[in-house]
Specification:
By secondary structure, the protein is mainly β. It has one helix and eleven strands, in the order βββββββββαββ.
Length: 127
C-alpha cells in the first residue's frame, strides 16, 4: 500500500508562489517510485475535483490543465521519492485543496482514477 503525503500548502497573495511536495512511502521491494506516474488534482469548495498536472514514470510525459499552463510546473525526484508542483503567479481561482495521486498507468492517472491518493493540502490565494 503506497502512502502519499503532501506538504507545502498555505495562504498566499495573488501573484505569489507556493511549492507543493508529495512524498511516496511504504513502497515494497518489488515496486519502486519509478513504477508510478504522479499527478496533482484540486478541489475547490462546492466544485468537483479536477485534474491539474501529471508526470509520467520517467518524467517524459507531462500534462497540465489549460488554466495552469505557463504558471505551474510539475517535476519528480526519484532519489527522494517525491513529486513537486511549483505554482507561480497564483490567482484566487487556484484556491482549493490539492491532492497528490499515483498510478502505474498515465491515462488512468490523468482521468482521476488513480489507485493511491494523499490526504490533501490547502492552498488559499487571497485577492
Amino acid at each position: 500500500q503506497v502512502q502519499l503525503v503532501e506538504s507545502g500548502g498555505g495562504l498566499v497573495q495573488t501573484g505569489g508562489s507556493l511549492t507543493l511536495s508529495c512524498v511516496a512511502s511504504k513502497l515494497t521491494f518489488s515496486t519502486t517510485f519509478s513504477d508510478y506516474g504522479m499527478g496533482w488534482f484540486r478541489q475547490a469548495p462546492g466544485k468537483e475535483r479536477e485534474f491539474v498536472a501529471a508526470i509520467g514514470r520517467r518524467g517524459i510525459m507531462i500534462r497540465y490543465v489549460d488554466s495552469v499552463k505557463g504558471r505551474f510546473t510539475i517535476s519528480r525526484d526519484h532519489a527522494k521519492n517525491m513529486a513537486t508542483l511549483q505554482m507561480n503567479s497564483l490567482k484566487p481561482e487556484d484556491t482549493a485543496v490539492y491532492y497528490c495521486a499515483a498510478h502505474s498507468d498515465f491515462v488512468t492517472l490523468t482521468s482521476g482514477q488513480a489507485r493511491y491518493w494523499g490526504q490533501g493540502t490547502q492552498v488559499t490565494v487571497s485577492s
